[in-house]
Design goal:
The chain is about 45% helix and about 10% strand. It is of the alpha/beta class and about 1100 residues long. It folds into four domains: about 260 residues, 2-Layer Sandwich (Nucleotidyltransferase, domain 5); about 240 residues, Rossmann fold, CATH 3.40.50.300; about 190 residues, no CATH class; about 230 residues, Rossmann fold (3-Layer(aba) Sandwich), CATH 3.40.50.300. β5, α4 and β6 form a beta-alpha-beta unit. The protein is globular.
């Protein structure tokens, strides 16, 4: 894992470079640039702010530069008009721009004032980009460091993840618009960050000083600019007297910051890496603190009705205290903040928590459903001392609820004088947490390279300072800008995998106290409300008996994932390759490392030899099994010639039971036998390693991970072809298959056939009560589709072979909340057909995103249905948007993990995010971050053998009614719901899949809040009148984009920036004409518009959708 190099000198092998914090730091400047947008080619600077210390940095020597510039010097009268963005984000008024000189003239004075640096700025990368643009020279920027980089270096984790909101996070008392950062605020924020770092245990500072000091020493030879930035960061921490200034209202503790902390830490650390075993992670303190609370049981044998006093309190919370909280944050009358629909949902949830029933709720976007279930759950759980689970779809939604909604709920309770004694926490699967014992085994050698020391230091500081140890919060990007981040990211991914907690990884009490997974479990056992994800809730049925499922439409797929197995042969080879890589002479796999270390004729060496023989046998058995599945695949292809596609789902069963599969069964038996022998040999070898010293801990951890991975592989094989007495023992509730993945590899699959049936028969009857909420439970004008898809109908009506009483299932529908007249829906009719020409369609999508994104300055979420398409389009658009300085994020990019993307998109208002499944559901981007939503394709599933097996089990009509269409329609509704998150939001939705206008696919439009017109929106989607319904535009792309820009009052801005070309090329002034686009014929029904030369005449409403199973859409 760690690459060792020969020593580079006498003694300990280290040169002795001067410490990076010994440099002089006179003349430090704090700078902030206010711009009309992030695009250096189209936007401009309109305010330059800086304050600079005297050469000695003495108190009172700060000089100030503050000049407002004209961002529109070439436009007549434009210099007197601040854009809406400038007014909103910076608070700039019209008067402040009057008489201002051009930015290029003010820039020269700014550069002279700042001098040669060093410079501290809010965002280092953005500052350098603007400096080089305005100076006209690459590499001309002074030495600078961003507050974002300083936070990533010294406090990796939640705080560093705030990025654009970092100043406000460090200085809660700072007032003013979000982006209006003044140099004194930046200085005070750095002071507060420094105060937090220097207040740590001195031994933590030793880790920081040693690790980052070694990284700096190595960077000097490989990346001089990165070394300079890192040295500046460490110097600021070492010598706060050079920049902190005098204490003031913003930062009263400035005088308490002392110089020399890093020097002292480095001297204490010496020349050997600090031993992490002598320290404790931050989560260990939490483990001890929560030990004082008693365990909250998952249920009570006694009746637990919702108390009458709590009912009255609940009413007060929604009528008085929640509105009062919102009124404290923003102006308005009390009634402006009361949500009757939210109150109604809360009342229904409270009623169910006190009764043995299941409740299915339709809570449209804007209801505020999270608070509607959190408050009754908190009151009921505290009163009855019973644990309540809240299961969200993703881990990101858990964090969103914990960081935003839980504090709001507790605040309302405290406002009502009833906030004491309620404990709420987050719980995820073990692998999401950092294991301290594993990290301790990962110490690098002193002479490792810069990337190794950066990665290790970041991970160690995260563990030492983050109280949760939740690896979802650990940043994957380098903490300081590097010339190339490829090696850093590869190393960090290896390190993170190494430190993830595993089942049974910490069995001793001392280890449990420092394992973040054990700390999280301890908190959860002692909490009244536990926020978890649906996968965990389904896997740990004993942990929650009272549970609330948010975004419940995902339960079907989550049940499928939780109770199914899939294994590719490449994944099996990867697991074996992480144990032993015989063809690589410098392999870091644990068995190979031991082969180089252990002496012949010793017991450990004999045990290793047993492991290597068992490894060879297991690898050979998997090779035989892969060959046998290839033989089966050939047999299946021949058998398929005489069958229709819908009849191919049973071929694996037929093959195994036909007598032709003896080689397949033999290979399957050998995989299990040899794999079990390998596991036993690894266990014996691990016992020998317990007695080794030095590097044995790292290798032992590698063996633990290898055994865990091997167990998962063997379990998947056992599930794929279950055996009894050596023969196949297929179960009717499971679908067995050999699939082919996107890379053309064979995949062994054992999938629960009907997840909804399994939920209804096995999971729901074990609950004391449950609440199921979503904005998509009302489909096709009723609850029946959602009941069938979730298995609630089966829970209510047991099958003949079930010996149980049916569950009581109740439903509740909350009315729509938003005024959808603030939304425009556009369907370009000239988009190519995906089915006919995928390449042309994706080229159109790429061009559309570029065309629209450039004009809107981002603020766009693009929803795909295929991860490979996202990555392809994202990679092709990177250069286009980088040249315009518009941040582009997409799932699958190396720079950020899936869990980071939402925070990055939210913190950069003018950015673009391309996503797949995660971002169709539950992602919350209120305000201007998201104003343009693009739905690339209708989210149909692709009928495959699994689909046809379901049809065979249920009947084609029932499968379509209970599974296929509910999943597709719910996903579409959820995707549309990403746009409107607050009553003040507005924006545009583009559907690039032209099928939505065809009669057999128009049921998708019926799910949207559109006025009655070409589709019947009122019956299903909910909007019945044109004033509260979304406007609808269909025409060519230019027509739809023009309508959207007019709807968003962007036409003049687009013309000002010279973006008047049409989608097809050339210039078209009509695209940005000032006259608003007419939103429909004056005498026709609702706000529907047909546009473009090819627009057909309005057709009568088609009959209800019905599509034969053989014609299911792809």
């Amino acid at each position: 894992m760690i690459q060792h190099r020969p020593p580079r000198g006498p003694g300990d092998g280290l040169d002795a470079p001067p410490a990076p914090w010994t440099r002089a730091v006179g003349g430090i400047a704090f700078c902030s640039l206010w711009t009309t947008g992030p695009d250096t080619t189209l936007d401009s600077v309109f305010r330059l702010l800086a304050m600079r210390a005297g050469e000695a940095g003495e108190a009172g020597a700060w000089r100030v530069f503050d000049e407002t510039c004209d961002p529109f010097p070439s436009e007549q009268d434009a210099s007197a008009t601040a854009t809406a963005r400038m007014a909103r984000e910076y608070g700039v008024t019209r008067a402040e721009l009057a008489g201002a000189r051009e930015a290029k003239d003010a820039w020269r004075a700014f550069v002279e004032f700042v001098g040669d640096g060093p410079v501290v700025v809010p965002d280092g990368e953005a500052f350098v980009t603007w400096w080089e643009h305005l100076s006209g020279a690459v590499g001309s920027a002074p030495a600078c460091i961003g507050l974002d980089e300083l936070a990533s270096l010294f406090t990796p984790g939640r705080l560093a993840g705030r990025r654009g909101a970092l100043v406000k996070a460090l200085l809660p008392s700072a007032s003013g618009p979000p982006r209006a950062i003044h140099p004194p605020e930046l200085q005070a924020a750095l002071g507060e960050l420094t105060r937090r770092v220097l207040a740590r245990d001195p031994r933590v500072l030793e880790v920081l000083a040693f690790g980052l000091g070694r990284a700096w020493s190595e960077l000097r030879a490989t990346d001089e600019r990165a070394a300079e930035r890192l040295a500046l960061a460490l110097t600021l921490l070492e010598r706060p007297s050079a920049w902190a200034g005098a204490s003031n209202d913003l930062f009263p503790a400035a005088g308490e910051l002392a110089d020399g902390a890093l020097s002292e830490a480095a001297a204490a650390a010496g020349r050997e890496p600090p031993a992490l075993e002598d320290l404790q992670p931050r989560c260990a303190v939490v483990y001890e603190d929560w030990g004082g609370f008693s365990t909250v049981p998952p249920y009570s044998e006694a009746p637990t009705p919702f108390d009458a006093a709590d009912e009255r309190l609940l009413d007060d919370l929604f009528r008085v205290h929640l509105p009062g909280q919102f009124r404290d944050d923003q102006p308005g009358a009390p009634d402006d903040f009361y949500r009757a629909s939210q109150h109604a949902v809360a009342t229904e949830v409270a009623r169910t928590l006190g009764a043995p029933e299941l409740l299915l709720v339709h809570a449209p976007t804007g209801t505020g459903k999270t608070l509607a279930y959190l408050l009754p759950a908190m009151l009921w759980a505290r009163r009855n001392n019973v644990r309540v689970g809240v299961a969200t779809y993703t881990r990101a939604l858990q964090e969103q609820a914990m960081e935003r909604d839980v504090p709001r709920a507790l605040g309302a309770l405290h406002r009502a004088g009833a906030g004491d004694g309620i404990r709420v926490t987050v719980l995820k699967g073990r692998e999401n947490y950092l294991c301290w014992r594993a990290l301790c085994s990962l110490a690098p050698a002193v002479d490792e390279d810069a990337e190794t020391w950066l990665a290790w230091s970041s991970l160690a500081l995260f563990a030492l300072t983050d109280e949760h140890g939740d690896l979802d919060q650990f940043p994957l990007r380098p903490p300081v800008r590097l010339a190339s981040s490829k090696r850093y990211r590869k190393l960090l991914a290896t390190f993170v995998r190494h430190v993830r907690a595993q089942t049974g990884c910490c069995t001793r009490e001392s280890d449990r106290e420092t394992c973040a997974a054990e700390v999280a479990r301890r908190r959860a056992e002692r909490s009244h409300v536990v926020l978890t994800n649906q996968s965990f809730a389904l896997a740990r049925q004993d942990f929650f008996k009272h549970i609330i499922f948010d975004e419940c439409e995902h339960l079907h797929d989550q049940a499928h994932s939780a109770w199914s197995h899939r294994l590719s042969f490449q994944a099996a080879r990867d697991v074996l390759g992480r144990m032993h890589a015989p063809r690589r002479g410098t392999s870091r796999a644990p068995l190979d490392r031991l082969a180089r270390q252990l002496q012949p004729t010793t017991r450990p060496r004999a045990s290793l030899d047993d492991c290597l023989r068992a490894w060879e046998s297991t690898a050979h058995a998997f090779s035989e099994l892969e060959t046998a599945t290839g033989v089966f695949e050939g047999w299946r292809q021949r058998a398929s010639r005489s069958r229709t596609e819908r009849d191919e789902h049973s071929l694996l069963r037929e093959y195994v039971e036909s007598g032709d599969a003896e080689e397949l069964l033999l290979a399957r038996r050998r995989v299990t036998a040899n794999g079990n022998e390998l596991d036993a040999s690894l266990a014996e070898l691990a016992e020998h390693l317990d007695q080794m010293i030095g590097g044995g801990r790292t290798v032992r951890r590698g063996l633990d991970l290898a055994r865990s991975d091997l167990a998962d592989v063997l379990a998947a094989v056992d599930s794929w072809l279950p055996l009894q007495d050596g023969q196949a023992a297929f179960r009717p509730e499971t679908f067995y298959d050999v699939e082919t993945n996107a890379r053309g590899e064979h995949v062994l699959a054992a999938r629960v056939l009907l997840p909804n049936e399994y939920l209804g028969r096995n999971y729901y009857p074990g609950l004391r009560n449950g609440v199921f909420l979503s904005a998509t439970t009302w489909l096709g004008g009723g609850f029946e589709a959602a009941k069938g898809y979730l298995g609630l109908d089966r829970a209510a009506e047991p099958a003949e072979d079930e010996e149980r009483v049916g569950c009581t299932v109740r439903t509740f529908r909350s009315p729509e909340v938003f005024d959808y007249g603030r939304v425009l829906v556009g369907v370009p009719r000239d988009a190519p057909s995906f089915a006919r020409d995928k390449r042309a369609f994706l080229a159109y999508v790429r061009k559309f995103i570029a065309f629209l994104g450039e004009r809107t300055r981002g603020r766009m979420l693009v929803l795909f249905t295929n991860a490979m398409d996202v990555k392809q389009v994202g990679e092709e658009l990177r250069g286009f948007f980088r040249a315009r300085n518009i941040p582009l994020w997409y799932q699958g990019m190396e720079e950020a993990g899936k869990e980071e993307l939402a925070g990055l998109f939210r913190s950069h208002v003018d950015s673009i995010l391309l996503g797949v499944d995660t971002f169709w559901f539950g992602a919350d981007f209120p305000g201007e971050t998201l104003q343009y939503l693009v739905i690339v394709k209708l989210p149909y599933g692709v009928p495959d053998r699994y689909h046809h097996a379901q049809c065979a089990a249920l009947g084609a009509d029932d499968q379509r009614r209970r599974i296929y269409l509910p999943r597709s329609l719910a996903k579409f509704r959820q995707g549309f719901g990403r746009l409107m998150r607050k009553t003040t939001d507005r924006g545009c939705v583009f559907i690039l899949d032209g099928r939505v206008l065809e009669p057999r696919h128009r049921m998708f439009l019926r799910e949207l809040p559109l006025a009655q017109g070409p589709v019947s929106g009122a019956a299903d989607g909910g909007a019945a009148d044109g004033e509260t319904a979304a406007k609808f535009v269909r025409g060519d792309t230019d027509h739809c984009v023009q309508a959207a820009l007019a709807h968003m009052d962007m036409l003049s801005d687009v013309r000002r920036r010279g973006l008047t070309s049409t989608f097809g090329g050339g210039s078209a002034e009509s695209l940005v004409r000032e006259t608003p686009v007419e939103m429909g014929p004056p005498s026709h029904s609702g706000p529907w518009v047909d546009g473009g030369e090819s627009s057909p005449r309005r057709r009568p409403e088609p009959p209800p959708f019905d599509i034969p199973v053989e014609d299911l859409p792809y």
